[in-house]
Design a protein that fits this description.
Distance between the termini: 64 Å
Radius of gyration: 20 Å
Largest sheet: none
Structural class: mainly alpha
Strand content: under 5%
Order of helices and strands: HHHHHHHHHH
Oligomer: single chain
Helix content: over 70%
C-alpha cells in the first residue's frame, strides 16, 4: 500500500485529487488537446492506475476540471471587485480582473476546455460562471448611478471580450504587452463614463 503523506487518509486523497486537477489544468494550458490519463498521472507524479482511483475516465476528469476552474476564475474577479473602494473603481476592477484572465495562461485552458469538453457538460457551469460575475458588476454600475445596470453590464462584458480578442501579434511585441494594450483601449472607452483618469502611459 502506498505511503500516506498526510494527517489522514481523507486528506491524502484530497491532496492527490488536487494534484491531478492541477496537472490536467497545466497540460491544457500547454496544448489544446485532451490530456491522457497517463500524461496527467505523470505530471502529478502518480501511476496511471492511481489516476483511475480518482476519475473513472478522461471525460470525468475534464468535467472535474471545469467544475474546479470556473469557480476559481470567478472568485478571482469577485475578490478584486470587492476590494475596490468606489463604484467606478469596482467596475474598472472587474475589467482588469477579466483582462488578466484573458491575457494569462488561463485563457489557453479555457480555449482547450471548449474544444475537448462536451457542450452539454460546459453549458451549466458556464451559465453559473457568467451569472456569478454579473452580480457584482451590476451592483457596481447601479451604485455608480447607471439607470440600466443589467444592460450596461452585458455591454461591458462584451467590450472586454472584443477588446481582448482584438489584440494581435503586433500588439504583443510592444513593451507594454497584451494586457496593457487591452486595458488602454478599454480605458479610453470606459474611462470618461466612469470618471477615471487616463492610464499613465496614455498621457
Amino acid at each position: 500500500m502506498p505511503r500516506i503523506q498526510a494527517p489522514s487518509v481523507a486528506e491524502h486523497h484530497a491532496r492527490q485529487r488536487r494534484a491531478l486537477l492541477d496537472a490536467a489544468r497545466a497540460l491544457l494550458a500547454e496544448s489544446p488537446q485532451a490530456p491522457s490519463m497517463a500524461a496527467v498521472g505523470r505530471r502529478a507524479g502518480l501511476a496511471r492506475t492511481s489516476v483511475y482511483q480518482y476519475f473513472t475516465s478522461a471525460e470525468e476528469l475534464l468535467a472535474a476540471v471545469v467544475a474546479d476552474v470556473l469557480p476559481d476564475w470567478a472568485g478571482q474577479v469577485v475578490t478584486k471587485v470587492a476590494a475596490a473602494p468606489t463604484p467606478a473603481t469596482r467596475v474598472w476592477a472587474y475589467v482588469e480582473a477579466n483582462v488578466d484572465l484573458f491575457t494569462s495562461s488561463e485563457q489557453a485552458v479555457a480555449r482547450a476546455l471548449t474544444r475537448v469538453v462536451e457542450p452539454r457538460v460546459l453549458r451549466g457551469p458556464l451559465e453559473e460562471f457568467h451569472a456569478r460575475l454579473q452580480v457584482p458588476l451590476r451592483q457596481a454600475l447601479a451604485d455608480h448611478g447607471e439607470p440600466e445596470p443589467e444592460t450596461m453590464a452585458e455591454l461591458v462584458s462584451s467590450l472586454i471580450v472584443q477588446a481582448s480578442q482584438a489584440v494581435g501579434p503586433a500588439d504583443c511585441t510592444q513593451a507594454a504587452g497584451a494586457r496593457t494594450v487591452t486595458l488602454a483601449r478599454l480605458r479610453r472607452l470606459l474611462g470618461p463614463y466612469l470618471g477615471l483618469d487616463p492610464l499613465p502611459d496614455e498621457d
